[in-house]
């Protein structure tokens, strides 16, 4: 059984990754299929440098892995369960309140 500290660390890492919209978009894209950085940058409409910084963060959080593929590197989710977790989290948030935004919550001081 995992300790509370381990559970908190894992959730904190996941939360840190989800705190940025670009990292969320990267995770959602990798949920669909592994991808090469150049393709991800083009698909997301961001620079390769910016993408590289976000991929480094996601690697440091343990959520994505770089897989050598010949002379290239392909990125994918570190574990297929992360894709399921993203789906479940997205469904749960939508099910709770679809008429709320973080801006509204921020105005109330809870974010």
Question: Which terms summarize this structure?
Answer:
mainly alpha, 2 strands, two-stranded antiparallel ribbon, single chain, 111 residues, Arc Repressor Mutant, subunit A, HTH_Metal-responsive_Reg, WH-like_DNA-bd_sf
Short account of what is shown:
InterPro entries: ArsR-like_HTH (IPR011991), HTH_ArsR_DNA-bd_dom (IPR001845), HTH_Metal-responsive_Reg (IPR052543), WH-like_DNA-bd_sf (IPR036388), WH_DNA-bd_sf (IPR036390). With 111 residues, this protein is mainly alpha-helical.
The CATH architecture classification of the domain at 4-79 is Orthogonal Bundle
Decide which structural class fits the backbone: mainly alpha
**Distance from first to last alpha carbon:** 31 Å
H and E string: HHHHEEHH
- Which bin fits the share of residues in helices? 55-70%
In this structure, how is the largest beta sheet organized?
A: 2 strands, antiparallel
Shape: globular
Uncertain ranges? none
Q: What do the pLDDT scores average to? A: 87
Total helical segments? 6
CATH topology descriptor of the domain at 4-79: Arc Repressor Mutant, subunit A
* Rounded radius of gyration (Å): 15 Å
- Tell me the strand order in the biggest sheet: 1-2
């Amino acid at each position: 059984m995992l300790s509370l500290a381990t559970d908190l660390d894992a959730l904190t890492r996941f939360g840190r990754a989800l705190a940025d919209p670009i990292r969320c978009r990267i995770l959602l894209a990798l949920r669909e299929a592994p991808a090469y950085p150049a393709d991800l940058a083009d698909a997301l409409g961001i620079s390769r440098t910016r993408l590289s910084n976000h991929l480094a963060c996601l690697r440091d959080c343990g959520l994505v892995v770089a897989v050598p593929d010949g002379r290239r590197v392909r990125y994918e989710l570190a574990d297929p369960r992360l894709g399921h977790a993203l789906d479940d989290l997205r469904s749960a948030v939508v099910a709770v309140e679809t008429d709320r935004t973080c801006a509204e919550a921020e105005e109330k001081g809870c974010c």
